Prior knowledge:
- Helices cover 82% and strands 0% of the residues.
- It is built from 5 helices and no strands.
- It has helices at 5-8, 11-25, 28-38, 41-61, 67-87.
Amino acid sequence: MTNSIGDTTDKQTLTQAYIDAAKTYYTQAEVDAQIDFYDTAMGQSILSKQPQITAAFLKQSLPDDTSETEAQLGELLPQMQQIIQGTF
């Protein structure tokens, strides 16, 4: 990879990209339901595990030599979790 994920994105860009995608697919009622859910203890537990689930999925589904990508995702996933929490 010539550019790392961190080189091409920042928190503001990621946040806006997520909001744009969410607006395309979610209704306001669905967003409201997600906000209510993520405010619960169960929602917070699920949200806190999402980075590990995503990393495990990518590790199983990508080629063997993904160390650089994994390192970049390891840095990026906590930021993405904060973006999702801040959006809902």
